[in-house]
Amino acid sequence: MAERRKPWTFVASGAPVRDDILVRTDAASVEQCLEACLPRLRELGFSFPE
Q: How far apart are the C-alpha atoms of 39 and 48, rounded to whole Å?
């Protein structure tokens, strides 16, 4: 964003996450979005390859 690139947004909500959960972040790259959101999704019980 500071580099004048378009920002990325990652959002996970609703089933199967749960209706009352929202995991969201805005970042400068898809990698930064995943770094922010994957730990939270793991806390909720989801598993992803490293």
A: 10
Separation of alpha carbons 45 and 16, rounded Å: 11
State the Cα–Cα distance between residues 26 and 24, nearest whole angstrom.
Answer: 7
Task: Assess whether the previous peptide bond of 39 is cis (omega < 30° from 0).
Answer: no
Provide the residue-wise pLDDT of the chain in tens; the chain has 50 residues: 456 778 999 998 877 666 778 899 999 999 999 999 999 999 988 888 87
Sort 36 into a burial class: Cβ within 10 Å, 0-12 / 13-18 / 19+.
Answer: middle
Stated pTM of the model = 0.71
